[in-house]
Write a structure and sequence with these properties.
Shape: globular
Distance between the termini: 31 Å
Helix content: 10-25%
Number of helices: 2
Number of strands: 4
Number of domains: 1
Strand order of the largest sheet: 1-4
Length: 122
């Protein structure tokens, strides 16, 4: 509830680091992780990620839109998009720290949140 209104967040993404995926991957699939090695890339430091983590990037898509603007910028490649939120997320909210994810959501005030795995990262 925010200012008397129910808030439904339907665009919450969870993008776990490769290290988190590898920790929880099905044991029968574990031998195949080496097939994903060409797609395992270092993540740049950001509001959501600190330290030497990696992500899996398979055919990444770059979005030319900038948060808050109605149309894409012709000169924006989408490759250098950075965090634009008012408050930096707590550590691990993209990975495996549900307590911090819930604390962030409690602070923001949504009534209901639908989280989904993101297929790629811009």
């Amino acid at each position: 509830m925010k200012n008397g209104f129910k808030v439904f967040d339907t665009d919450t993404h969870v993008i776990p680091a490769a290290e988190v995926i590898e920790r929880y991957v099905d044991p029968d699939f574990r031998p195949r992780l080496k097939e994903l090695e060409p797609y395992r890339t270092p993540m740049r430091e950001s509001a959501e990620y600190q330290g030497a983590l990696h992500g899996y990037r398979i055919e990444p898509q770059f979005y030319r839109r900038v948060l808050g603007e109605a149309a894409p910028r012709p000169d924006h490649s989408g490759r250098d998009t950075v965090w634009m939120g008012a408050k930096v997320p707590r550590p691990g909210v993209q990975d495996d720290n549900p307590a911090n994810r819930v604390a962030d959501m409690d602070e923001r005030g949504p009534t209901c949140v639908s989280s989904c795995p993101a297929a790629g990262r811009a």
